[in-house]
Amino acid sequence: MGGIPVDLTGRVALVTGAGGGVGRAIAHALARVGATVWVNDVDEDRAAEAVAGIEAGLDGSGGSAHGVVADVTDPAAVEAMARHTGPVDIVVNNAGLPLGAFDLAPFAETASEAWRPWIELNLVAVMRVTHSHLPGMLARGWGRVLTIVSDAGRRGERGQVVYGAAKAGAMGFTRGLASEVGRHGVTANCIALGTIRHGLVAEGMDRHPEREARMLRVYPLGRLGRPEDPAPLAVLLCSDAGSWITGQVYPVNGGYSNAL
Known about the structure:
The structure is a single chain. This protein has 260 residues and is of the alpha/beta class. It has one domain (12-249): Rossmann fold (3-Layer(aba) Sandwich), CATH 3.40.50.720. It contains nine helices and seven strands; from the N terminus they run E-H-E-H-E-H-E-H-E-H-H-E-H-H-H-E. The chain has helices at 21-32, 44-56, 75-85, 115-140, 151-154, 161-181, 199-207, 209-215, 231-237, and strands spanning 12-15, 36-41, 64-69, 90-93, 143-150, 186-193, 249-252. The protein has a seven-stranded parallel β-sheet, sandwiched between helices. Helix 3 (75-85) runs parallel beside helix 4. It is globular. The mean pLDDT is 92.
């Protein structure tokens, strides 16, 4: 971490949706600074692949990781996952249903039955996973809750109203939680992302490069995000170095929109 005093040796982290993308990058970064990482994914093969990558290590040094398969929108699955992992010190709520770059729709044209998946995964699951591990953090007097959100919820975006509402709800949950648990040594923060060029988004960009070129005009840094871009900040916020940071939403977005 470039001289920043970050050492998570002895800490246990759970990263949801860590089979790929941003979640996998954060899981790798936490393992590199000593944390034992539980890699959650709904897909067993993706989780196993991510664990193998952490154990191999980018530099051959390896890290400590385990896979845990669970659908975080299923209350019983979340309870079973908490029993399986045992106590964790760090929860990274990364699992979410991303909105495809070319999947936008005006709110008036959406069907109400289509709202639930966005809200269940991007908000309710965040609360549920946090709730399953928070009592242990409070009892031990140390904990970190980090939730990955989106600029769609921070500033509002056309065609992303329900998605943005769920992400904004996750930010509100985080701020309220931070005010409750800070005196017990537990912090809660969010990282708000701009467009990350990965997965379905990358596939869409590859099919429509002209749309990507138009999108890049609003990014001062001239590129879309990479999965690894939020990882250094995530590690800082999950460490002792971030012990006086709580209730905050930090944009990692290539300058797309300002924090203030």
